[in-house]
Amino acid sequence: MVARWSKRNTESRPMASARSAQSRTSVAGANDWFTSRSMRTWAVLHLVSMCGRFVASTPVSTLATVFDAEVGGVDLRPSWNVAPTTRIAGIRDVEGHRRIDTFVWGLMPAWRRTSPTPLINARAESVTEKPSFRGLVPGHRCVVPMTGYYEWLTTKEAKRKIPYFISRRDGDPLAVAGLWDEGDEASGGYPRACVITVAANAHLAEIHDRMPAVLAGDTLDAWLEGDVAEAVAVLSSLGDGILDAFEVSTKVNSVRNNDPTNIEPVAGQLPDSLFD
User: Fold this and answer.
1) 17-22: average pLDDT
2) DSSP label at residue 8
3) Distance from C-alpha of 91 to C-alpha of 71, rounded to nearest angstrom
């Protein structure tokens, strides 16, 4: 049985086979999108942006089941190294029904259209105040599904940035709160989206002081359909014990490296004392 995050069933049950299925998914052509110099430059400059890279390897058909959603116009390859300006899947409420559509990661408000750097994150604490986001909160909320995300840790001992992969321990995809806006010429007409971040929980704060606003199963409706007060109230740090974090290879630093081995654990990059 696959967990269904619906109005009828908000309890999440483990998807035991999720990761094994993801690792078997073909990666043919997964790097096709990474062709422009501007994308490469953006990815390098935002290597350690919170949350600046994630994995989206869960099939759309599985996402539709897990999140009790219809599938709109989505034709996306699995990716183990999603970077800003990339097309991603997003879930929004359409006339009372959840629907999965294609978005471009990164908002570009009208007053920033001449800027080469879209807004990929929004802080939950100020999302109803900042001009770039406050107009979107009432009716342009979405969920960005992720298999997991990467975060980079800097330590004096390691003398370099060490990537971590962070995901749910039960294998279910993350449901990350986001905002969306209408598309433009630069986005190919696809609507744009950003990810909302919150203060990290105690465990993940050892890696970074921020984390994506991961929604629990029983808060999905409040975020997508509730009024502003109800929606903002569910933006909080997911408790300890739900997410797992482990070191992965520094090859994920380059978005050209895009295959299931990106999320295989590695050891020896950090002193044993950290996280003991």
Assistant:
1) 37
2) S
3) 9
Using 50, 70 and 90 to split pLDDT, how confident is the model at 73? confident
Nearest-angstrom CA–CA distance, 179 and 228: 13
C-alpha 89/C-alpha 193 separation (Å) is 10
Q: Give residue 54's identity as a one-letter amino acid code.
A: F
> Which sequence spans correspond to the domains of the chain?
18-263
pTM (2 d.p.): 0.81
The pLDDT tens digits of the residues spanning 203-254 come to 999 999 999 999 988 899 999 999 999 999 999 888 878 999 999 999 999 9
The torsion angle over the Cα atoms of residues 173, 175, 178 and 181, rounded to 10 degrees, is 70
CATH code: domain 18-263 is: 3.90.1680.10
Report the length, in residues, of the chain.
Answer: 276
CA distance 274 to 257: 27
Instruction: Check whether 4 has a pLDDT greater than 70.
Output: no
Tokens coding 95 = 């006339």
Structure tokens at 90: 């997003």
Task: Return the percentage of the chain with pLDDT > 70, whole number.
Answer: 76
Query: Is residue 116 classed as helix, strand or coil in its secondary structure?
Result: coil
